[in-house]
């Protein structure tokens, strides 16, 4: 194992967070992802429950349960404010966030890191219990390392400049021990180094198939490898990104969705089914029984015209689809708004009304092909066209005769829309946002100055929440805010 350094976490993250909130709507059944009041870290059962609780906040409304996903598409040009609106996300759509009106992923992500650290530190400090095998402890350790890496990475992607713009730019605090304190921000490079370290360790510790279940909602060695492939893509280490992607493609237990698989649950497809699906490497479970579930603030409700309907699909994305593409059918309109379209990636699980249950894919096999194709087009040995056509032919399209980097960028938009990628894809490749279907008076296009300073490109990093800056004298706000 790599050496663990101690970095204090500021007081807003409660030391030794052991409890997940509970909503009265589901008091009748014990939530799938929650922790009981009797939880301690002194027994294996306690550590196991703490690990389950570390997953819970992923489905919170500030993270994969809603904001983190839809904002990446709103700010990235795949989405727009719908004609049905409850007033949400205007600041993000118009790129006018401030420290007082920024996304609050900060709290959920650092709470997850705190929970993961409690288990990691306990096990690494020599925890033993009669009858508990080392491989069981290794599994818990690997799961929490994976979750800690994912949380740090999502934080640095949202609140910092991309790795490609400079590793010495301000990142986020790397927190490896949960205790009161006031940490300064690490550099972007230091955050990525820790993320890679945690994932490399997790690969060696995690089982290939989770003992918790096969629904894709639990970390495995394959999900750690797939996340590393994506992290290395963002680092522009295309050789290693391709190596991990190839391992998952060639050796993992996954298979591409066919055109039939890609449709919604009531047509025999994946979306809204609640199943893992053959392509799913890792996903976030959005059952209402999860302790952090946002209920009405759920992604499946916010993107549905039968719900709040705030987040509709831009024509910039719709126009990228060819007529035969099955993915073009994953958008719906209504009689009242025939010209507006909403994504059907979150139709509500198995048609449940209201549509408040969901699964959010974080890592899929199709992205591994796209990562490898992009790596090949950046100089790595391989066949980018074959990888590109693997996507196309499984989506109802004819094989293409050639492929360019722009083709891969467009394919990522078509394939991964409303899965929380487009904003970060633009940032990591230092491409400007160019919107045609846009309703604002300004900020239609947002330039990314290649090689520019953090101040010149300040809009591409969300401001640190004002409460964190006020509470921590060592917390430096992003330039420009």
**Assembly state of the chains shown:** single chain
Main sheet, how many strands, which sense, barrel?
A: 2 strands, antiparallel
- State the helical fraction: 25-40%
CATH class: Mainly Alpha
Mean pLDDT level: 92
**How many individual domains?**
1
How many alpha or pi helices?
Answer: 15
Low-confidence stretches: 1-38
**Terminal residue distance:** 39 Å
Quick description:
With 481 residues, the chain is mainly alpha-helical. It contains 15 helices and six strands.
Helix/strand layout:
Layout: H1 44-56, H2 67-76, E1 79-81, H3 90-93, H4 105-124, H5 134-159, H6 188-205, H7 221-234, H8 238-251, E2 280-286, H9 299-302, E3 311-313, H10 315-318, E4 331-332, E5 342-343, E6 358-364, H11 365-376, H12 384-393, H13 405-416, H14 422-428, H15 466-471
Antiparallel strand pairs: 1-3, 2-6, 4-5
Helix pairs in contact: 1-4, 1-5, 2-14, 4-5, 5-6, 5-7, 6-7, 7-8, 7-11, 8-11, 11-12, 11-13
